[in-house]
Amino acid sequence: MSGHVVPVKTYLGIFVALLALTALTTGAAFVDFEKLDTGIRLVDAIPLNTVVALAIAVAKMLLVILFFMHVKYSSGLTKVVVMSGFLFLAILVSLTLADELTRSWSPEPGAWNTVVPTILPLLRGFF
Amino acid sequence: MSEVPVSDMAMHGAHPPGFKHQFEDMDQQREAGSLGMWVFLVTEIMFFGGLFATYIIYRTLYLTAFEEGSRLLNVKFGAANTAVLIGSSLTMALAIHAAQAGKKKSEQVMYLVLTMLLGALFLFLKFNYEWRADYHEHLIPGFGFIIRPEWGAAGTHVPLFFCFYFFMTGLHATHMIIGFGILGTLTVMAHRGRFNSEYYAPLEVSGLYWHFVDIVWIFLFPLLYLIGGRFALPGVH
Amino acid sequence: MSTTVIPEMPGQEIPAESRVNYLNASYGVKSWLLTTDHKRIALLYLGSITFMFFVGGTFAVLMRLHLIDPQGALVAPETYNKLFTMHGVIMVFFFLVPSIPATLGNFLVPMMIGARDLAFPRLNLLSWYIYIIGAAFTLYAVISGGVDTGWTFYTPYSSTFSHTSVIPTAVGVFITGFSSILTGLNFVVTIHKMRAPGLTWFRLPLFIWAMYATSIIFILGTPVIAITLFLLGLERLLHIGIFDPAIGGDPILFQHMFWFYSHPAVYIMILPGMGVMSELITCFSRKRIFGYTFVAFSSLAIAIISFLVWGHHMFVTGQSIYAGLIFSVLSFLVAIPSAVKVFNWTATLYKGSISYDAPMLYALGFIGLFTMGGLTGLFLASLATDVHLNGTYFIVAHFHYIMVGGAVMAYLGGIHFWWPKITGRMYPDGWARFAALVIFVGFNLTFFPQFVLGYLGMPRRYAVYPGEFQVLNVMSSAGASILGIGYLIPLIYLLWSIRYGPIAGPNPWGAKGLEWETPSPPPTENFEEIPVVTEDAYDYANVGGSRV
Question: Residue B224 class from Cβ within 10 Å (0-12 exposed, 13-18 middle, 19+ buried)?
């Protein structure tokens, strides 16, 4: 860890930004983004409000990590350590969700038989 | 590899107080301390993260029930508490800055005490206003939880939401209380003039812990309070 | 605190009794219970872990005695359930997970990198106390009636229906998890920050790479099982429906959270053994390791990929087929770095100058038995075959080949290899080689029949079984008794050697490594002056081998 001294002005600026983002996210909770005709379509399973709230939370987290926790001025090792924590949490959540969300997709017995014949003629087209 | 041993005495004068002899110099000690705290915070990410993962799964499965529960949380206090914690992170950063910049110990102590006060305010608002109200409204699972008819079919899973709410915020509060202990110790050390521009590693390392606790709340607030379809409330657009 | 150390002049042998080392630097119970010396803490762990091994082993003996008869020879079925549960809990959490890291790791990591101690010696001592407290909770659960849920604590049985001491056991495992976390944290910081001058990453002994990779798993995986057991306890107390399907919970979610740690945990159990293997194979072939870089990176690859495969434990419990496909492919992937190591050790042996000391016997046994265990894992990674083999003795044999034929043999090999360094004494060589052979024979007689039993369809965790399986079961039980005796023999002669064994010099094996350049036993501070490293690891004279 470097002995880098962050100026007080930077800290105050980050503080104000964090408060502003808090106000923003609180206000955004009362707005129905689905009803606003923003034209933004994401995965249907994830409501836009959730995306907005989490994006703002991630932004706040980055401000705290980079400036209050000095990661911006830290060694590459520190950055890798921080990223690895979030990476493995992402692995836990995504692979578990991969199961939970696809359980109802399980095909009826015999479905594999119907899939394969439709693929084979396509493959034959290549040879 | 065997050499004539160098006298311990000759080495001691070269190292400042607080030096640990398994290290070669203060730089190595400071870097090891910081890396150690970061590695510990990674374990905390996975610890809270496991809880967040379970919450996310059940929120996906029981969206209606979780939204009902979320709407019953007090957004005003949640938002206020978020601001309070962010403030405490600022004062913590300023306490470290005070030591780094070689400021008087009274300034270091002031910022540390402010951090503790803001943390105490957070806990006071939470326990005295939010949790006490939840208890009186029978929203604590295991302590007289009452399922309300207006929740309809989703009602059976609303207790699950509150289980997660109390467990997640309770675990967070426990970490804050531990943080108090750490801050208290630091305040005593600062008052004794232990920290200066050469030696402030305990402040730095404890600051990392405190900021982490802040970050957990930064995620708890939206995940618990804000994504509950509040726009479904009448009178709000 | 400082003690005068008599310097060793070349050519002058100081009698061991008059030289101050970490064992005799201070006396008394307090000097051991309040020590911060990593070497003494390693011995504290060694004693505790050996005790837990024999407790867990006792349950195994009782199980094998019971299974001599198809109707069960010894205990009621409910008690049998408790036996296999407690055997699993104790062996996994209180023996295998801490074994090599907490004993050999604690002792050797600072010495191998030329440091005076770990980065956080007091945290190290704390980690031992945490282990003891966790073990106390679990032993309390054992004597207060036991647990019968299986070491996997599957819900809703563990959360709703079992009337046994689930919560004390879960608390014990939860607490001990923090012991692992602190050990891993200590190792990571020490290896990053306290290497001696000149000791670059690619000059490190492969044991250090293995400890580093293991520590990554400790740090990233253990907290998840901690929170999972916490949730299990909550569910048991409050019946909210976290994991109980009758009230809306998802029991598969418990399994996801449980196996997210417990699969990487099995790599915690084998990676350190692989690290020991690299040390033993090179020393007793008098050769450099073949493919150092590959072996080093394979340790990291195993640690990382191990986090991506946990669903292969859940192919038949109700997980979606699509998730099963993903996990199956990834499980085949994780076999590759393990295979890389086996190829490299074998290539190291080729044209080496091989000596068959006891540690080498264990190492050679490891190569064969680990390979068998690993290969049988592929049948389990394949979805179609796993449907038939899951829940049978095939699985039991598979993981015992790796855990016992692999990890425990590596542990014993390492204990024997570094015993002279740790104690300053040599053990009786004849008895050591004899015990290694007894263990090898006993092990195979115990567990090979179990592959056949599983293939024939005998389910695991059953107190009774169809009569046609009796012969194989009796063979297995006979093997278990031989194996048990095999484990008692080293216990006896190793303890004997502490008092009566011949005095060992600094490097009885002629091995390469910084730990062998200190006296045996080493002084408390390990090195009077931190060494400067100029050569690569395993710089044995080349005997026609590869220079990779």
Answer: buried
| B22:C188 CB<8 A | no
Give the domain range for residue A96: 76-104
Residue A114, domain member (yes or no): no
pLDDT band at C162 (very low <50, low <70, confident <90, very high): very high
Q: Is B100 on the interface with A (CB under 8 A)?
A: yes
Q: Which of C301, C302, C261 is nearest to C97 (CA)?
A: C261
What is the distance between the alpha carbons of residues C372 and C220, in angstroms, rounded to a whole number?
A: 29
pLDDT score recorded for residue C44:
97
Residue A112, domain member (yes or no): no
Same domain, residue pair A69 and A9: yes
Q: Number of structural domains, chain A?
A: 2
Measured between beta carbons, the chain B residues lying within 8 angstroms of A103 are: none
Asked whether the beta carbons of residue A68 and residue B222 sit closer than 8 angstroms, the reply is no
Place domain C33-517 in its CATH homologous superfamily: Cytochrome c oxidase-like, subunit I domain (1.20.210.10)
Same-domain status, A42 and A60: yes
Residue C287 per-residue DSSP state: S
Q: Which of B36, B51, B159 sits opposite C227 (nearest CB)?
A: B51
Q: What is the ipTM of this complex?
A: 0.91
SS (H, E, C) C376-424: HHHHHHCHHHHHHHCCEHHHHHHHHHHHHHHHHHHHHHHHHHHHHHHHC
Phi, psi angle pair for C425, to nearest 5°: -130, 155
Asked if residue A59 belongs to a domain, the reply is: yes
Q: Is C200 exposed, middle or buried (0-12, 13-18, 19+ CB in 10 A)?
A: exposed
Q: Within this chain, do residues A15 and A37 fall inside the same structural domain, yes or no?
A: yes
Both ends of chain A: CA-CA distance in Å?
60
Among C303, C312, C316, CA closest to C331: C312
Q: Is residue C32 scored above 80 in pLDDT?
A: yes
- Residues A23 and A84 both lie in one domain: no
In order of their start, the domains of chain B are 30-228 (1.20.120.80)
Which residues, including other chains, have CB under 8 Å from residue B14's CB and lie 6 or more apart?
none
Contact A99 C252 (CB under 8 A): yes
Distance between CA atoms of residues C350 and C337, nearest Å: 20
pTM of the model: 0.91
pLDDT digits (tens, 9 = 90+) for A12-42: 999 999 999 999 999 988 887 777 666 665 5
pLDDT of C6 strictly over 90: no
CB nearest C256 (choices: A84, A88, A96):
A96
Residue type, A114: T
CB of C220 less than 8 A from some CB of A: yes
Q: Do C223 and B62 touch (CB under 8 A)?
A: no
Give the pLDDT of residue B1.
39
pLDDT of residue B237: 37
Flag if A89 and B49 touch (Cβ within 8 Å). yes
Would you say residue A117 lies in a domain?
no
- Whether C326 sits inside 8 A of A95 (CB atoms) is yes
Higher confidence at residue C4 or residue C171?
Answer: C171
Task: Measure CB to CB from residue B90 to each of A15, A97, A100 and give the nearest one.
Answer: A15
d(CA C483, CA C438): 7
Whether A66 and A82 share a structural domain: no
Is A43 a residue whose pLDDT tops 70? no
Co-location of A38 and A66 in the same domain: yes
- Rounded to 10°, the helix C429-456/C470-500 angle is 160
Q: Render pLDDT for A59-101 as a digit per residue (tens, 0 to 9).
A: 999 999 999 999 999 889 999 999 999 999 999 999 998 888 8
Q: What pLDDT band is residue A2 in, cutting at 50, 70 and 90?
A: very low
pLDDT band at A104 (very low <50, low <70, confident <90, very high): confident
- Residue A120: count other Cβ atoms within 10 Å of its Cβ: 10
